[in-house]
């Protein structure tokens, strides 16, 4: 049965009493400063933005100055907010667009505001509400979490949560509610340790009362029967208890690499996984028990910070460098792997094993792989692993997949990295074996038939993409698969 949803009017009454001072946390003196600060606040804390903007606004006091900014100078001023290349580009674009289209003035029209560089719907809503008093309810990470815990929305995206909240609460209260929910999320309903025992909303909250699983942590909080109880709820399962690292060994790991997430489970470290990307989907049960922190290319850094990891694991091809820069800016330790060969796998197993306190597991796997690679390999048939269609893309000779083929006795062909190939390029490569993995592109029998027709002499195979591309967790399976092709 669905737990009862709190009455909106009572919820508002409590929030008003608890947070009479709720206000916009970004320091600003006018709409221009607010839109700049809001752009900087993406993937960054408001406090850090407030440390950055005073010097920024002295150097660039208005749209005209920003439009003329030199990228390197601007980047140096905003570097600590993370993703500073993109943010600098957006800010200069913002200044130029304001000068070209709006006489240097920030427009109060939602459509015109939303069309400015770097200003998405969330930023536009923040600016409309706080600079112009236009009712809007931008859903950030705190509101998303608190609204779902309170049972106000079951939606899985900020946009849908926003729509649910706007339906429930009177339009004239949206701005006030926006600030109150953010304050509540920051002060009481913490991402990792919601202080249910001290929460003024406890008797209205189905999550705090243990009537439903915490949609953020994915576990049921133990019922909190009295506000005088401990303010730290105990969790009933493998929930992320806050722990200091044990002898420097990470206890709260976030993996931004799907195959590494699977590897951690293989090594018996599941209870130490505090977060994963939405592509970390193996083993399947992990989807319901470990919180997701966005994608591999664009992880949600607020969410990562809220989960308080003591190690984030990255891979250089899988995750952009900007993610590592942002983690550094947030003071979060990270480890970046680089996997382009099977030798890299052996080195990574050893490094991860040592770093995570399971050196035997890493050494056993590395030694077994090295033993299986001993001996000379002949240069075998020309193999072309495709990874995308329209346009055709392949996994080049300097990638992990190509080395798997090489070690399996094939000769990978094509340009390095992940090149786009024209029909003529494909023909010129004259492949003798064409592999069509099931991911990242879902190749099917129709594609196989199409290529077989064009390359009647070649062998064209549909293959298990995870076996071929999930390094570390499936390297041995990938090697077995490739060897079976000979
Ligand atoms: S009772 Fe707990 S989960 Fe519910 S709003 Fe309060 S702190 Fe958050």
UniProtKB/TrEMBL annotation:
The keyword Iron applies. It comes from Geothrix oryzae. DNA repair enzyme that has both DNA N-glycosylase activity and AP-lyase activity. The DNA N-glycosylase activity releases various damaged pyrimidines from DNA by cleaving the N-glycosidic bond, leaving an AP (apurinic/apyrimidinic) site. The AP-lyase activity cleaves the phosphodiester bond 3' to the AP site by a beta-elimination, leaving a 3'-terminal unsaturated sugar and a product with a terminal 5'-phosphate. This is Endonuclease III. Its EC number is 4.2.99.18. It catalyses: 2'-deoxyribonucleotide-(2'-deoxyribose 5'-phosphate)-2'-deoxyribonucleotide-DNA = a 3'-end 2'-deoxyribonucleotide-(2,3-dehydro-2,3-deoxyribose 5'-phosphate)-DNA + a 5'-end 5'-phospho-2'-deoxyribonucleoside-DNA + H(+). Transmembrane segments: none annotated. InterPro entries: ABC_transptr_periplasmic_BD (IPR002491), DNA_glycosylase (IPR011257), Endonuclease-III-like_CS2 (IPR004036), Endonuclease3_FeS-loop_motif (IPR003651), HhH-GPD_domain (IPR003265), HhH_base_excis_C (IPR023170), HhH_motif (IPR000445), Nth (IPR005759). Keywords: 4Fe-4S, DNA damage, DNA repair, DNA-binding, Glycosidase, Hydrolase, Iron, Iron-sulfur, Lyase, Metal-binding, Signal.
